[in-house]
Amino acid sequence: MIFKDAIGIIAQLTAPLRRFGASSLSRMLVLAVGLSAMTAYTVPTLPNAAAVWLGACLWCCLGYFAVDSALRARTAARAGHARDHFLSLSFLVDVVSVIAVPIAFLYGATAPNAWLFATFWILKLAQNSPGFAQLGRVFVLEAKPLASVLALFVMVLFLSSAAMFVIERAVQPRAFSSMPQALWWAVVTLTTTGYGDKVPITELGHLVGGVVMIFGIVSFGLSTGILATGFAAETRRRNFIQTWDLVSKVPFFQSLEPSSITEITHMLRRLEVPERVAIIRRGKVGDCMYFIAAGEVQVDIKPTPVRLGAGAFFGELALLGDSVRSANVTTTLPSTLLILDLADFRTLTANHPDLKRAIDAEAQRRVTENQQMRERQRLGDAASA
Amino acid sequence: MIFKDAIGIIAQLTAPLRRFGASSLSRMLVLAVGLSAMTAYTVPTLPNAAAVWLGACLWCCLGYFAVDSALRARTAARAGHARDHFLSLSFLVDVVSVIAVPIAFLYGATAPNAWLFATFWILKLAQNSPGFAQLGRVFVLEAKPLASVLALFVMVLFLSSAAMFVIERAVQPRAFSSMPQALWWAVVTLTTTGYGDKVPITELGHLVGGVVMIFGIVSFGLSTGILATGFAAETRRRNFIQTWDLVSKVPFFQSLEPSSITEITHMLRRLEVPERVAIIRRGKVGDCMYFIAAGEVQVDIKPTPVRLGAGAFFGELALLGDSVRSANVTTTLPSTLLILDLADFRTLTANHPDLKRAIDAEAQRRVTENQQMRERQRLGDAASA
Amino acid sequence: MIFKDAIGIIAQLTAPLRRFGASSLSRMLVLAVGLSAMTAYTVPTLPNAAAVWLGACLWCCLGYFAVDSALRARTAARAGHARDHFLSLSFLVDVVSVIAVPIAFLYGATAPNAWLFATFWILKLAQNSPGFAQLGRVFVLEAKPLASVLALFVMVLFLSSAAMFVIERAVQPRAFSSMPQALWWAVVTLTTTGYGDKVPITELGHLVGGVVMIFGIVSFGLSTGILATGFAAETRRRNFIQTWDLVSKVPFFQSLEPSSITEITHMLRRLEVPERVAIIRRGKVGDCMYFIAAGEVQVDIKPTPVRLGAGAFFGELALLGDSVRSANVTTTLPSTLLILDLADFRTLTANHPDLKRAIDAEAQRRVTENQQMRERQRLGDAASA
Amino acid sequence: MIFKDAIGIIAQLTAPLRRFGASSLSRMLVLAVGLSAMTAYTVPTLPNAAAVWLGACLWCCLGYFAVDSALRARTAARAGHARDHFLSLSFLVDVVSVIAVPIAFLYGATAPNAWLFATFWILKLAQNSPGFAQLGRVFVLEAKPLASVLALFVMVLFLSSAAMFVIERAVQPRAFSSMPQALWWAVVTLTTTGYGDKVPITELGHLVGGVVMIFGIVSFGLSTGILATGFAAETRRRNFIQTWDLVSKVPFFQSLEPSSITEITHMLRRLEVPERVAIIRRGKVGDCMYFIAAGEVQVDIKPTPVRLGAGAFFGELALLGDSVRSANVTTTLPSTLLILDLADFRTLTANHPDLKRAIDAEAQRRVTENQQMRERQRLGDAASA
C-alpha cells in the first residue's frame, strides 16, 4: 500500500517531467548514458573520482528504470491488462534490468563486476519494437530453407575441420592440437572472419582452406537470398495490412469497386506524423500526393490558411500540372497520412478515369475558391482603402 | 538368416522405444551427442576416466546408428524398395557411418584417430532433407551465371596472385616465395577472409590488394544476386506445386474457374501440424484464415465444441469483422492446413464477390447455429431447473 | 567590387578553357590529382624536391577549386538563386574545401598537417550527384527495418562483449582488460572483419565467438535483404518518373489510352547521349529500338543520310525482321533517347496491334523511300553517264 | 604459304583427334594442366627432374594453344570473318597466350620467370563465354547506382583514413606513418577483409574503426542489392529473347494470339541438350513437360520406340494425371527443348482452355495408339504362335 502511494506521489510530482520522461526517446537516452557509464566503469585505470561519478550516474539510471517500470506496470494494471503484462517478456526485461545489479551487490560482487549486469539493460531496445516482430516473421516464414543452409554450414564445418585436423596437426601440433581447435579454425574461416590465429601452412591445407572460404561466400549468398526473398514478401504483406483499414476510412475511395480498393491499397504508403511537422514546403519539387486518414493539416494559403481534416487530400496540384509545391502544409494534430507516389498516381488515374476527374474537380474547386478569396480580399482592401 | 532373426528380435524387444528411437528428432540427438563426444575425444589433455566414458558413449552412438540403419533397410525391403534403397546415397551414408570406425580400428589406428571417422556421421544431416533438394535446384537453375562468376573469380585469382608474386617476392622472399603461396594470399583476400599471414607491404602491392578486395565485394554481390534471384523463382514454383493438389481437394474452391484456382494457389501457404496443437488462441489478433486440406480440428465453442474435417474452413470471422479471435481452435488429428493471409483474403474476395458471399453465408450460418444452440441449452437448463 | 571584377576578368580570360575546365570531368581530374598529391605529401621519407613540387601542385588544385567555387556562386547569383545557393550543403563543401587548408596554415600547422585538411575535397564527389539522392531515399524508405537490424546488432554487440569479457579476462588480462576492449573485439567479429588482435582462447570463448560470427552473417543477410528490397522499389519508381514526361512528348504514343501509356512508361529506359556518339553500328545484332525524346540523330543511309528529330523512332527494322542493324545511327545533337527492349517490344506489340501496325507502316514507308531514292540516283547516274 | 600448308597438313593429320581436341572441354583441360604446371614451376624447392618434366608439359600446352589459335583463325578466315576475327579481343588473347612466354625467353628471362607469363592463359576462360556478356550488361544497366556506391566508398575511405592517421600516428608511428599506410588500413577494413597488420589501439581509433566496419556492411548490402536488382531484370530479359524465336517455331503455339504467345514465352525455359542424353527416366516423378524446338528425341514405348521431331511435345502425361513418368525419353540428335514447369502448366491451361484441350487430345491419341499397337502385336504374336 505504501509502495502504491509512493508511486502515486512520485507520479504527481513528476507530472511535468513525465511527458518527456516516459517517452521512448528519453528512455533511449538514459539507456545510452547508462551503458556508456557501465562500459567506462570496467576500465581498470579509471581514476577514483571518475569512478564515484560514474557510480552515481549508474544508480540514477537504475532509479529511472525502476520508476519507469513501476509506472508502466501501474498503467497496465489500470487498463486491466495486469495479468498479461506480468506474464509478458517485456515485464521480465523490466524486472531483470532493475534487480540484477542489486542482487549482484547483495552477493558481495565488487562494484565493476556488479554493474556488468547492467548489460541486460540493452534488452530494453527490444521492448515495444514492431520491427522485431517483422524480422521474426521473416525467420518463421523462411525457417525451412534457413535450416537447410545451417545444416549445410554445419556439415562443411565438421568435414573441413576433421580434414584440417588430420592435415595440419603434424606440422602445427600447437595450433591444430584437437578437433575443438580445428572447429574454431573452421568457423572463423567459413564466416570469412579470418582472425589469422590458426592458419593452414601445408599445400593441402591451403587447398582445403580455399574451398572452405569459397563455400563461405556461397553460404553468405544463400542465406542473404533467402532472407531477401522472405523480407520482400513480408514487407508487401505488412504494408497491405497497415494500409487497408485506413483506405476504407477515406471517403474518396469509397465509391470505388472492391478490386480497385485492393489495387490502391498496394500503392499507398502509411506515414505517421506528430503535430507541427512540415509535410510540404513551398517551392520544393513534389512527387507524391497525400490522403489524410486521421488528424488534421493546415495549408498556408494567402490570405487565410485552410485546415483539412480526415478524409481530405492535398499535394495533388504538383502532380496534375507544374511539379513545384505552391504552399506550405503543416500538421496541426498528430496525423496518419497515406502517400501516393507520382508513378502510382499516373497508373491509378490512367486505370480509373473517374478518380482522375474527381481529383481534377476538387483541385479546380480549390484553385477557384482560392482566387475568389483573394479577389474578395483585394476588393475589401480597396473598399477599406 | 541369423542376422535377420536377430534384427527381428531386437525390433520386437525395442517396440516401445522405437516410436521415439526411430524418429528424426532422436536421430538428431544421438548425432549431436556422438559428434560432441568425438570432438572431445581428440583433446590430448583428456583425463583417462573421461576418455573411457567418451569411448563408451561413442560405441553406444555407433550401435544406435547400426540398428537404425538396419531397421530402415528392413522397412525398405518389406515395402519392396530394397534395390532402390541399396543403390541410394542415403544407404551409402548409413553404411559408411557404421563401418568406417570399426575398419579404422581393424587397421590398427589408435582410438582417437579411429573415432575421427565418426565425422562422417554428420552426413546424416543430409538424409531425407527436402530442403537440400530445393537448394540444389537453385544451383542447377542458375548454373550458367554462377559458372561465369566462378570463372571471373578464378581469373582475378590467377592474375592478381601472379602480379603480387612479382611485386612482393623481392621484399618478402619468405611470404611470397612461390605462386602457390601467392595464390593462397589471393584466395584469402578475394573472399575477404583476410588471415593476415601474408600481407603486401609495398605501395604497388597495396594498390593491387585494394583492387582485389573491392573485386571480392563485387563477386560476393554478384553471387548473392544470382542466388537470390534463383531462390525467389524456386520458392514461388515450389509453393505452387505443394499447394495445387491440396487446393483441388477443398470443395469450397471447386466451384471456381480454373484461372481463379491458379490465382488462389499462388496465395495459399501450406502448413503441416501434428495433433493436439493450438492453431488459434482466443483473444489474439487474427490476420489469416485456414482451410483444412486434411485432418481435423476442434473449435471450442460453448456449450458444445464443434469438429471440422477436411474441406472446411475456420478463422474467417476475424477477417470479416472484428480482428480478435473468438474461440480456441486445436487440431485433433495430424492436419494439413492452407493459410490465406488477410492481404490476400481482401484481394481474393474483391475479385471474386461470389466467394465472399459464400464465406459470409457460412460465417452467418455458424453464428446463428451457435446462438440457437445456446438458446436451446438455456431453455433446456430452464426446463430441467 | 574588386573581387567581383577580378572574377569577371578571370572568367573572360579563361573563356576558351572554361568549357573544359568547368565540366565535372575536369573537376574530377583535379580532385584525383589533388588527393593523390596530398596523400603522397604525408610520406615522411619524401625527398625535398618532390615535396616542393607536390606543394605547388596542391596550391594549384586549391586555386582551381577557389575559382571554380566562385564561378559557380556567380552563376547561381545571376540566375537569381543566390540565397538558395549560399544556404546549400554544396556551397558549404565549396567553402570548406577552399578555406580549411589556408586557415590551418594561419594557425601555424606544418605543411603536411595543413594539407591533411585537403581531405575535405573528397566531399566534392557528393556535389550534384543524383545517385546519392536515390541511395538516400532507399534508407528513408527502409528506415524502420534497418533500425531494427541495427538494434539487434547493438544488442548482440553488448551481450556478447560482456560475456566475452567475463569469460576471457582471467586468461587474457591484457587483451580483454575492460568492456571497451571487449566491445572492440565484438564489433570486429560481428562485422566479420576479424583483425585477430584479440582472439578468444578458452573453449567457452570459442563457442560464444562462433555464435557471434554466425549472427554476423545473419545481420549481413538481413541488411542486404532490406536494402535490396528497398532498392528494387526505388529503381522502379525513379525510372517511371524520369520516363513519364518524355513519353508524353513522343507524338507516336499520344494516340494510346492513358492506361497503355502507363504500361509503356514502365517498359522504356531513358538514355542521355552527348552529340557525335554512335548509337547503332551497322552489322551488329540489335535487340532494342529507340524513340527520340529530345535532340537529333543521323541515319547513314546511302545515298543521302537522313536526320530524325524529337518524336521520331529508329532501330525498329532489326526487331521486325532480320536482327542485324542495316545502317549506322549517330547523334548530331545532345539527345535523350527512350530505349525499348526486344522483350518489351514483343509484349507491347502483342497487346497493342495498332501500335505494331503503325510501326510496320512507318518501317515500310522508310524502306520504300530508301529504294526509290536509290532508284532515282541510279537513273540520275545513268542519265549523266 | 609454307605456314598455311603446314597448318593444312597438321589439320589433316590430326583429323581424328580434332573433334575432341578442338572442343572447349579439352581446351579447359589443357588450361588447367598448364596453369597447374606453371604454378608448380615457381616453387623454389622443386627437384631438377620435376622441373624438366614440368617444362616439357608447359611447352606442350603452349604448342596446343598455338595450333588451336591458328586453327581458329583459319576457320574464321574461311568463313569470311578474317577481319572481324583479327580485330577481336578473343584473337588478342590467343596471340598474347602464345607469344608472351617465347618473347620473355628471348629477352633472357629465366625459365620460372618466363613461364610466369603463362598466367595470361587464364584469359582464355573469358573467350566465347556468353555469361560474361550477361554480367557485363548488369554492370552497364546499374552503372549509375554502382558509381554512387563507389563514390560513397571512396569518400568514407579518405575521410576515415585521414581521421585514423591523425588519431593513431602519435601512438603507432610505424603502422600509421603516412596517409598511404592509413588508406591501406581503411580499404582492408571497409571491405571487412581485416588482415590485422594495422589495427587502431586508441579508444577514438576503435570508435572510428567500428563505424567504418559497419559502413563496410552497408556498402556490401547496397552493392549486392543493386546487383541483385539488375541481375533479376537482365535474367528475365535474356530468357525472353532466347525463348521468343523458338516459341514461334513450335506449330502448337501458332494458333494462339500474340498476347498469349508473349505470356507463354515468359514461362518457358530453354535447354540445350547434346545427343544421346536421357531427358526423362521412367518411374521418376515428373514436374514439367517439354516442347521440341529443334532436334529429335526417342520415346522408349513398347513394342516400338517412337521418334518425335521439332514441334512435338512430350512429358505431358505426368502433368495431366499420375505424376510418375511412364517411359524413358532420350535425345537422338543435339536438341533444343523448351521446358514448361508444372506451376506454369497449370496457369497456362487454366487461362487457355483450348490449349488444354489440344494437349489432352494429343495425349489421348498417343495412349490409344500405344494400346492399339500393343494389341496388334499381341494378335501378331498369337497368329505367329
Brief write-up:
The structure is a homotetramer of 385-residue chains. Chain A contains 16 helices and 8 strands.
Tags for this model:
homotetramer; 385 residues; alpha+beta; four-stranded antiparallel β-sheet; 66% helix; extended
Commentary on this structure:
The structure is a homotetramer of 385-residue chains. Chain A has 16 helices and eight strands. Chain A is 66% helix and 9% strand. With 385 residues, chain A is an alpha+beta fold. In chain A, a hairpin with a 6-residue loop joins β4 and β5. Chains in contact: A-B, A-C, A-D, B-C, B-D, C-D.
Number of helices of chain A: 16
Share in helix of chain A: 55-70%
Class inferred from helices and paired strands of chain A:
alpha+beta
Mean pLDDT of chain A: 83
Unreliable stretches of chain A, pLDDT < 50, 5 or more residues? none
Strand elements of chain A, count = 8
Radius of gyration of chain A: 31 Å
| Major sheet size, sense and barrel closure of chain A | 4 strands, antiparallel
Most extensive contact: A-B, 55 and 56 residues
Strand order of the largest sheet of chain A: 1-8-3-6
Oligomer: homotetramer
Q: Beta-strand percentage of chain A?
A: 5-15%
H-E order of chain A: HHHHHHHHHHHHHEEEEEEHEEHH
Distance between the termini of chain A: 72 Å
